Protein: NAD(P)-dependent dehydrogenase, short-chain alcohol dehydrogenase family
Amino acid sequence: MSDQHPLDGKVILVTGAGGGIGRAIALEAAKAGASVVVNDLGASLDGKRESSEAADNVVSEIEKLGGKAVANGDSVADPDGAKAMVKQATDSFGRLDAVVNNAGILRDCFFHKMTYEDFDAVVKVHLYGSFNTSRAAADVFRQQESGSLIHMTSTSGLIGNLAQANYSAAKLGVASLSKSIALDLARWNVRSNCIAPFAWSRMTSSIKVDSPEQEERVNRMKEMVPEKIAPLALHLASDEGADITGQIFAVRNNEMFLMSQPRPVRSVHHGDGWDIESVRKQAIPALRPSFQPLDVSGDVFCWDPV
Structure:
């Protein structure tokens, strides 16, 4: 392995790799020496199938760089589709070393207007999709006794955002899924981590702009290109990242963060046990100073990206 090609001999499956963050990771993986399975359903932003050209185009880009890649048009929301992606990797390149669970759709609307179909479709792609591909890859990884799963979560789930109950629920679920995989598969040297990416892409281009403040936030996001996400993802896929598992990172332009995971922040004790009155008088007043405010991702990441 060389510094220039840290992924020599590796095989990586990147879902939703026809554009945006997935495309950037696929291209950079190929430049780093990996063979790449470029998965993309060729769907519109809300998940309706359109064309398979996106994956083919990225494969062509990789081949022009002198790299190796194959296109895949299966849906991550379909368990058999996920199995087919993994089989295509092993059939084409003989092994599979990493999966980047990047595929996603959006159907944003306020909760009181959200339909079951809108909730179901988004959770199916993000959460079930991450499960399906990870579960299919787990069989190969266990046999190899190595492998890396890299999941895209979001500060919409980790912190909160307006009009994204479906997306937020799925993305926080992905973080918990990743931790469980890390625990369950550690004995086979399989690791699982999350990245919350900040980058301008087709998905973030759907953000509603209805105020000067929101317009300013969107303009800041346009400065954050998808290529900024790739180095961390590819380090996690490499042998040098083999000791990292169960973590949640965020990448915001040139900034990188390790995100906290839920842990107790304050406790109260009542020797005789609690009743409604003692909860009201003692527990809540003691705990209230440590309550989390009703903030959104933009409130927490409120400074300009650097």
